[in-house]
Amino acid sequence: MASLSIFAVASVQAASHRVNDSLVLNQTQNIHISTTISEVAPAENHRPKIALVLGSGGARGYAHIGVIKVLEENGITPDFIVGTSAGSIVGALYASGKTSKQLEDIALALKVSDVRDFTLSKQGFFDGQKIEDYINKQVNVQSLENLKIPLYVVATELKTGKEIVFHEGNTGKAVRASTSIPSMFVPTKIGNEEYVDGGLVSPVPVDVAKRLGADIIIAVNILAKPEYTETSNMWGLFNQNINVMQNRLAYYEAEQADILIQPDVREKQHVFSTKSRKETIEAGEKSTLDHIDRIKNLIEYRKFHIADENVEQFTGKQQQQFQYISSN
User: Fold this and answer.
1) What are residue 289's phi and psi, to 5 degrees?
2) Where is the active site (predicted)?
3) Alpha carbon of 144 to those of 94, 208, 269: distances in Å?
4) What is the 3-class SS of 121-150, one letter each residue?
5) Catalytically annotated residues
6) Average of per-residue pLDDT values in the chain
7) Which helix (H) or strand (E) holds 250?
8) Which helix (H) or strand (E) holds 36?
9) What secondary structure letter does DSSP report for 185?
10) Is residue 132, in this structure, part of any structural domain at all?
11) Of 86, 126, 244, 258, which residue is 20 to 30 A from 204 by alpha carbon distance?
12) Cα 229 to Cα 137: distance, rounded to the nearest angstrom
């Protein structure tokens, strides 16, 4: 069985130390606890930990490539990536070590047949196995924990509706779970549980990055505004229902980000046309260019203030940490 890690939130009391607790669950359901304590060392010039949060949004996910391109051109590399739904796809490929140019080439070459596999299941029209295989091929079958940039993939546990975060194991399967849109895709089964699209509970998972200890959070919201969604047909109405709910969730999530990038992307009639893909990538570039000076200034500012803030943060304050569960 593929090994995947699931994170749950725990609140721990922190004094002058940073504490990381991990719970590992094996096939026999035995729980092993390991704790690592490291000192918070002050530094005059401490590089801030940067998180790149890539949100959900279907084919509008091409905009994430444009965002990465501008960050790359300005020498900004995230310390870790949090991706949900479409953001998990781009996040996985980027985390594997691909450049923005390679990401763009892959995006423009993608065929419908590469990722869609029809099924007669009562749970959905598409099985999702092709997405899993496609991602694993693109990342050279690297597991999540072995990617060059740490990646956290958000999905929704179908039975409970809980937010689940994968960080170890089969990269393709984690992305498959995160992109399994209910009623369209068959839920992804991992162990005894079924998982569906992460965008249902966390369309712009800023809170995950925050709980992982990011000093600077750059979030990308690619959701279509409800007023731009076509509602004259059944598919449009389905999209609108999802858009309304996700936009409301995203509003509260995104306000926690230090930098919020919102490319001007709308629903495209021909999402698999080369023209639409290029336009969406360019929209991501344009929006990021509008924020790049602020991003650079924030990084420089935090370099010289992060040590003082860390001392304050770990003096008697409640600090939320992840406890992760690994199923093999």
Assistant:
1) -60, -35
2) 85 (nucleophile), 197 (proton acceptor)
3) 12, 16, 34
4) CCCCCECCHHHHHHHHHHCCCCCHHHCCCC
5) 85, 197
6) 80
7) helix 234-254
8) strand 31-39
9) B
10) yes
11) 126
12) 34
Of 287, 155, 278, the C-alpha closest to 220 is 287
Summarised one tens digit per residue, pLDDT across range 238-252 is 666 666 667 777 778
Q: What CA–CA distances, in Å, run from 304 to 30, 155, 300?
A: 44, 36, 7
Instruction: For the beta carbon of residue 74, count every other beta carbon within 10 angstroms.
Output: 15
CA distance 40 to 308: 10
Containing structural domain, residue 145: 50-304
Looking at this protein, which amino acid is placed at residue 238? F
Calculate ∠ Cα 111-224-188, nearest 5°.
55
- Amino acid of residue 253: E
In a domain, 217, yes or no: yes
Q: What pLDDT was estimated at residue 121?
A: 85
The pair of structure tokens assigned to 145 is: 């924990």
Number of folded domains that form the chain:
1
Distances (CA, A) of 216 to 8, 82, 293, 305: 22, 13, 14, 12
Pairing of strands 4-13, 188-190: unpaired
Window from 170-184, 189-203, 254-268 with minimum mean pLDDT: 254-268
Amino acid, single-letter form, for residue 193: E
220 located within any domain: yes
User: Cβ atoms within 10 A of the Cβ of 41, count?
Assistant: 8
Whats the size of the chain, residue-wise?
Answer: 328
148 in any annotated domain: yes
Through-space distance between the first and last CA atoms of the chain, rounded to whole angstroms: 6
213: CATH: 3.40.1090.10
